[in-house]
Amino acid sequence: MRDGSSDDLSALDALAAALPQGRIIVDADVMSTYVRDQALGAPFATPLAVVRPHTELEVQQTVRVCVDFGIPIVPRGGGTGLSGGANATAGCIVLALDNLDRIKEIDVDERLAVVGPGVVNNDLRQACLEHGLWYPPDPSSAAWSHIGGNVATNAGGICCVKYGVTRDYVLALRMVTGTGELVDIGRRTAKGVAGYDLVGLMVGSEGTLGIITEVTVRLLPAPSPSRTVAGYFDSLVDAGRAVSAIATVGLTPSALELIDRQCLVAVDEWKNMGVSTEANTVLLARSDTPGQEGNQEAQAILECFERAGATWAAVSTDPEEAEALFEARRLAYPAMERLGHVMTEDVCVPKMALPEMLARIEAIAQRHDTVIANVAHAGDGNLHPMLLIRHGDTDGRTRAEAAFIDIMTEALELGGTITGEHGVGLLKKGGLAHELSEAAMSLHRAVKSAMDPFGILNPGKVV
Prior knowledge:
Layout: H1 6-18, E1 24-25, H2 28-31, E2 49-51, H3 56-69, E3 73-76, E4 93-96, E5 103-107, E6 112-115, H4 121-129, E7 133-134, H5 147-153, H6 160-163, E8 170-176, E9 182-186, H7 198-202, E10 211-218, E11 220-221, E12 227-233, H8 236-248, E13 255-260, H9 261-271, E14 281-287, H10 291-307, E15 312-315, H11 319-337, E16 340-344, E17 347-348, H12 354-367, E18 371-377, E19 382-390, H13 396-413, H14 429-435, H15 438-451
Parallel strand pairs: 2-4, 3-4
Antiparallel strand pairs: 1-2, 5-6, 6-10, 7-11, 8-9, 8-10, 12-14, 12-15, 13-14, 13-18, 16-19, 17-19, 18-19
C-alpha cells in the first residue's frame, strides 16, 4: 500500500468486491517477490497490491476498477524479462497472469494452438510435439518464461535465424484494453487482411497497449533430426567472420550460436562440463534440412568455419556431445551470475557487421575496465554481451552502465538496433530515443494514447 490513504483503501475494497477471495495479495513480503524482473539496475517500487486472476473476466474486472480509481497496472508473466518491463511502479497493481495457464486447444489439422498467457513456453512445445507439431520460438528462458511474456517482448531464441521470432507465429489474441473492454483481434486462417494488423502491434508492446488473456499461435511440423557443426576459434572476430561467410554463401542453419571463453570457463567451473579447455570462442551450428541436402549443408558450414580460421571444426557424430555444447550455451547466463551481478545487453546488427561489432565490444570492455562475456544468436546478428559487476566492486556498476550505453551506441552506428528480443522496458528508453526519430516517437505516443486513453497500462515503460 502506498500510504494508507482513503483512496487506496477504497480501491482495495472495490477490488475485493469485484474478485473472488484469495486473488489479492497485500502482504509486503509476498509482494516483494513480484516487484521486478531480472534486469539489473532497472528501478522498481512498492505496489498497492498484487492481483492474481484466474479468468479473463477477473482480468477485465481488475482493469475496470483501476480505470475507476486511476491506478496503474503492471502486467507480469514469469518475471524472466531483462529490461525492467515488468517492474512495479509506486502504488500500482501488479497483475500476475500465471494462473491463466491452460493449453485450451491444439488443432492438428489447422496446425495451431490456443493457450492462456501463463502457459510456460517449454510446456507448450512439449504438448505440441506429442501431436507431431512444433512451436519454434525458444528463448533461453523457455523452461520458465510464459507465452504471454514472450508475446509482450516478441521473444526469439536459438531457432530465430531460420524460423523467425514470436511475431511470426501469433495469429490471434484476446485482450483487455485500457478501457476495460475484452476484444478479439487477429484470425485463425492462413490469410487475412481485414483491418489493421493489431496483433502485430500488440506483439512486442510490453503490456503498454493491452492485457493479453489468450494467444493463438501457428505451429509447424516437428523438425527433422539435426546435424551439429562445432568450431573453435582463437578470437571473437574470427568467429564473427565465419558467421559472415555463412551468410555470404547463402546458407541458413537452423541455429548458429556463439559462446566466448569467459562464458565457457564460468560454465565449466559450475558444471564441470569440460568445454573450455581448447577454445577461446565456440560457434555452434545446426542443420535440420533432411536427407543428403542436410549433409551437404553441414559440410558447407564446416568449410565456412575452416576458411574463417577455425583452429578445430567438425560435424558432430555424437548427439549427446552436441547437446552438451548447446546446453553450455543455455547455461552461460546463470553461470556468469554466480560470479557477480550481470547486466545483459541485447543489441542486433546486420550479419555482415558482426565481426566489427564484436571487436568494438572488446574495445568497450577495455575502455571501461569491465568484464564483458559474450554469447550471441550469431546467425541473425543478435548479441547478448554480459557485463559482469563483481561482488564488492563499488565502482563496477558505474563502469558497466557506461559500457552498456556505449554498446547500444556502437550498434546503432553499424546500422543495428538497441534491442533484438528483450524489449525496451526501462533500461533502454534512452536508447530508443536515439534509434527513432522524433516523428516516429510521436507516432508511438499517439498509438499509446489511443489504446490506453487513461494512461494506466504499464506507464513509464517503452515510451
